[in-house]
Amino acid sequence: PEDAEACSRGNPRPSNPKTPKPASKQRQSSWREERTRSLEDNEMSLPSLAAAYSTILRGLGEDPHRQGLLKTPWRAATAMQFFTKGYQEKIVDVLNDAIFDEDHDEMVIVKDIDMFSMCEHHLVPIFGRVHIGYLPNKRVLGLSKLARIVEIYSRRLQVQERLTKQIAVAITEALQPSGVGVVVEATHMCMVMRGVQKMNSKTVTSTMLGVFREDPKTRDEFLTLIRT
Ligand SMILES: [Zn+2]
After folding, report:
1. In CATH, what is the architecture of 37-88?
2. What pLDDT, in 10s, does the model give residues 174-223?
3. Residue 208 C-alpha to ligand 1 middle, in angstroms?
4. Where is the composition biased (Basic and acidic residues) (predicted)?
5. pLDDT by residue (tens digit) across 72-127?
6. Which member of 74, 85, 112, 166 has the lowest number of beta carbons within 10 Å of its beta carbon?
């Protein structure tokens, strides 16, 4: 079936940092030309989203008019807008006033950033942790901003591979560092709940750019530091 195919890409497989895969052929649109969803858009689309959830309830064999479900379409619509609020934000706004000139040339690492996203194939949660490292080249980013970048990209409909790459590319474009490494460990509810994936297994993806890709010592230092 098509959906099993789609999510087999999320099957647990160890990332092998020694053989980085060639960059995806898929066109990667830059955050610089991003269009966002406004709060007005949210307000305007709420009634039709709620109506769509009523249809879903009926389609599932439920009665949208029974008491427990009366407000469910509106709640679900509002919740879905929240789960995808990354469309309301732009990376460029996060970067404003957060990039500093600094002669720091040691690796910067922020690990265990909580991540909550939505699988774009099944519209159910993906959640896990993100570890980010970069080797600055005269410019650094406020540390809390790395978590904000994760938040903006994860609160959208995603596949884990793209999420991982988008975070790495955004940091690269913003800071032009010597290198960036991003590792995402996540559980996909679409896999766990359908029994495709065991409860405690995780999908690991990584993107290594610059010296993280070219220099095994730098990459190993990063991978060691995020595991301790
Ligand atoms: Zn899925």
Report:
1. Orthogonal Bundle (1.10)
2. 999 999 999 999 999 999 998 877 777 899 999 999 999 999 999 999 99
3. 24
4. 30-40
5. 999 999 999 999 999 999 898 888 888 888 888 899 999 999 999 999 999 999 99
6. 112
Residue 176 Cα to ligand 1 midpoint, Å, equals 33
Got the DSSP string for the chain? -HHHHHHHTTS-----TTSPPPPPSS----GGG-----HHHHHHHHHHHHHHHHHHHHHTT--TTSGGGTTHHHHHHHHHHHHTGGGG--HHHHHTTTEEE----S-EEEEEEEEEEEETTT--EEEEEEEEEEE-SSEEE-HHHHHHHHHHHHSSEE-HHHHHHHHHHHHHHHH--SEEEEEEEEEEHHHHTTTSS-TT--EEEEEEEEHHHH-HHHHHHHHHHHH-
Distance 122 CA to ligand 1 centre (A): 4
Active site annotation includes 119: yes
CATH topology for the 93-226 domain: GTP Cyclohydrolase I, domain 2 (3.30.1130)
